[in-house]
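Exercise 7.
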Amino acid sequence: MPGMFIYGSCVSRDTKPYLGDDWTISDYVARQGMISAASPRAVLRGESALKSKFQNQCVRNDIRSTLFSAIEAATPKTDVFVLDLVDERLGVYDLGNGTYVTQTWELEESKLLQQQQAKPRLIPFASDEHYQLWTKAADVVLERMKATGRPLIVLSPEWSETADNGQEKLQYRGYFSSTWNKLYAPYFDHLRSRGCNVLSVGQDTVKAAAGHQWGLAPYHYVDAVYHRMRDAITAAIK
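Solution. The predicted structure, written as tokens, is:
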């Protein structure tokens, strides 16, 4: 049974059902951007307000920078590493001493930031500082994954500008999908420059699904997009 290690978001995770029952997930590391993953374990004191076990675990793992230990533990049952960059979208908080945590919806809802003596400094996604930190972190992450000898594929479907119900000019946090796609471009270009297999899916194929199980969002797609990603994943291990 082929095993896939998912490092990313629902974009990658939601592709799993399209691969069939003979595929397994060796591990799923979510809500942990590369800057956080490649930095030392951080400290955020306080009690989380989150009720979901999965969401709490994601926040804890991000604070603890668990990606590398997860890679080591899961490699024997992993046939391919599958990455996407959706969870990079909100940037990171600088906690000092070279430690960072990913800015996510889950972190916001946990109320942990409000319990610190001073709110940490946010480094916004696509800022010069974020990009410089991210490229260095990405190189470390790629090195760790490539050292396993397993193939690696990066899923890079554009954020959809339209939905299958006819809605147009989709937005996320006040920015149109077209803007997000431009902000992401240098990040994917960096991965390509490092020899990564990056699957690009353009606006001629991507479309947001109004009836998606997680709701309407520019990165919640219709079946055709998941079919493309499924085919790329299966091709990566051949």
